[in-house]
Specification:
Blueprint: H1 3-12, H2 19-26, H3 31-56, H4 60-79, H5 84-87, H6 106-133, H7 146-151, H8 160-183, H9 189-216, H10 222-237, E1 239-240, E2 249-250
Parallel strand pairs: 1-2
Bound molecules: fe (ii) ion (2 copies).
Length: 251
């Protein structure tokens, strides 16, 4: 049913999620860590997109608009201020967001990333609802090695650094999509349905990151895709003691 959605994602990823990770993720005692980590991943996805926009494409007014949009979610995640009631209706922009006029790819990047940011904040809200419904105490948890591991490979000059970060964004989105599909059948029905509902937007996020990377690059980016694809596959398959949404093979 989701094969046409997942086929390009599975082709893009150099290696499927190890069965041992799925076995670990199925365990009821790991549900709390999975959901708490997932919540933070949604926020990080929004924050990384905003970081890229700030650095490369936004006007000062756009920076303020999006920083304000994100603030209540960050306050919850880092200071535990608020809940699903106080966050309700907060994911709204009163004005459209404009790119800097000196940035040739700016408006395309702004349009794609603003949609992505708002979708990730919506996902954050949906994960928080599930956390509250399951009476899971919320505490922030330290980040996995995954994103950091890939960011080590980013080149230090522009626009290559931007292109690398966009390719990494594509890998994170694609792997998330693949893992949602893998674990959905093994989770409680409501959470499983929610995970399946995420596939479409995460598949588009992967595609948007990749399109932006190729559009901004003057040269073919296949070798960089291969480079990060190998790094990503290593992080997802090598032994990893720290079970998280994007962790490696459990030991
Ligand atoms: Fe998401
Ligand atoms: Fe996403």
């Amino acid at each position: 049913m989701y094969d046409n959605l997942l086929a390009p994602i599975n082709a893009f990823l150099k290696y499927p999620t190890p069965d041992a990770w799925v076995e670990e993720a199925k365990k009821p005692e790991n549900l709390a860590i999975l959901l708490r980590d997932h919540l933070i991943c949604e926020l990080k996805a929004a924050q990384s997109a905003l970081f890229l926009l700030k650095r490369y494409a936004l006007t000062p007014e756009g920076v303020t608009q999006l920083t304000d949009l994100m603030a209540p979610y960050e306050q919850f995640a880092y200071k535990r201020i608020g809940n699903t009631q106080t966050l309700k209706g907060k994911n709204v922009l009163s004005k459209s967001i404009q790119a800097r006029s000196d940035c040739s790819y700016g408006q395309d990047m702004v349009d794609k990333m603003v949609l992505l940011i708002r979708e990730e904040l919506h996902h954050f809200y949906q994960v928080l609802e599930i956390i509250e419904e399951n009476n899971i105490p919320y505490d922030p948890i330290p980040a996995a090695r995954y994103a950091k591991g890939m960011l080590k490979g980013v080149r230090t000059y522009e626009p290559e650094a931007l292109i690398d970060k966009l390719i990494i964004g594509a890998y994170i989105e694609a792997r998330s999509c693949e893992r949602f599909a893998k674990i959905a059948p093994h989770l409680d029905e409501k959470i499983g349905k929610f995970y399946i509902s995420l596939l479409r937007s995460e598949a588009r996020h992967y595609q948007d990151y990749l399109t932006l990377a190729q559009d901004i690059s003057a040269v073919d980016i296949s070798d960089r895709i291969t480079f990060f694809g190998e790094k990503e596959a290593d992080l997802i398959t090598s032994p990893d003691k720290d079970f998280k949404f994007h962790s490696g093979t459990p030991v």
